[in-house]
Amino acid sequence: MAAKLPPSTESAHWNQILTSLGQQHDKQQFIALYEYFAPKVKAYLLRFTSVDAQAEELAQETLLQVWRKAHLYDASKAAASTWIFCLARNIWIDLQRSAKQRIEQNLDFYDDLSLLQEQQTVQESGGIDEPEAANLAQRSKQQIAELLRGLPALQAQLVYKSYLEGKSHSEIAADLEIPIGSVKSGLRLAFKKLQQSLGVSL
């Protein structure tokens, strides 16, 4: 068994490997980087998500980005580990943004449908006028979107699929490829946060 390198020497070693990877694009160097950093990146990502499979997938995406972007690495500005963990964090942030954007786009659809139904009711009943109905529907959409923006991306997806799409826990688990236990625990956490935001029981 090879002796473990001192931290400073180990850091310099991986800085050199990553620099060389950027210059030569050598597959053996990448394999060495992958085997060393993949479990560390996964452990880092588990700080952001409790879903093991999601952390595993994002760790793989991070190391793929290392392969693609190694030529951008500058050892004079950051250690290899810092640079790689920064990639992982950016991938997580991008995932959250894209998930919430998809949710809000779908909320636009539900809001349009709700507005059409509201306008039809107004026309049939002779009640409030169309601008006022539109304002009511818009406020409703904004409130929902604001609440979902306050949730982590996965929890927002769970709430959306459960209550706007009407899917069962098992269907959500299949859609997101996560254990059903993660769906249930994620929804419980989401509801707790929504209760705190609304000040009511859900």
Strand content: under 5%
Which fold name fills CATH's third level, the topology of one domain?
Rna Polymerase Sigma Factor, Chain: A
Order of helices and strands: HHHHHHHH
CATH class of one domain: Mainly Alpha
Helix content estimate: over 70%
- Unreliably modeled segments: 109-130, 132-139
Overall 3D shape: elongated
**If you average the pLDDT, what whole number results?**
75
Structural class comes to mainly alpha
CA radius of gyration: 23 Å
Per CATH, which architecture of one domain?
A: Orthogonal Bundle
Oligomerization status of the protein chains: single chain
CATH superfamily of one domain: RNA polymerase sigma factor, region 2, helix turn helix motif
Number of strands: 0
Distance between the termini: 57 Å
**Number of helical regions:** 8
Largest sheet, in brief, is: none
Notable characteristics:
8 helices; 79% helix; elongated; Rna Polymerase Sigma Factor, Chain: A; 202 residues; Arc Repressor Mutant, subunit A; single chain; RNA_pol_sigma-70-like; mainly alpha
Could you characterize the architecture of this molecule?
This is RNA polymerase sigma factor. Pfam families: Sigma70_r2, Sigma70_r4_2. Residues 142-194 form the RNA polymerase sigma factor 70 region 4 type domain. It comes from Oceanospirillum multiglobuliferum. Residues 33-100 form the RNA polymerase sigma-70 region domain. This protein is mainly α and 202 residues long. Among the domains are: 11-92, RNA polymerase sigma factor, region 2, helix turn helix motif (Rna Polymerase Sigma Factor, Chain: A, Orthogonal Bundle), CATH 1.10.1740; 150-202, Orthogonal Bundle (Arc Repressor Mutant, subunit A). The protein contains 8 helices and no strands. It has helices spanning 7-24, 27-45, 52-69, 80-125, 130-149, 153-164, 169-176, 180-198. Helix 1 packs across helix 2 (27-45) and helix 7 crosses helix 8 (180-198). It is elongated and about 50 Å long. Mean pLDDT is 75; it is low at 109-130 and 132-139.
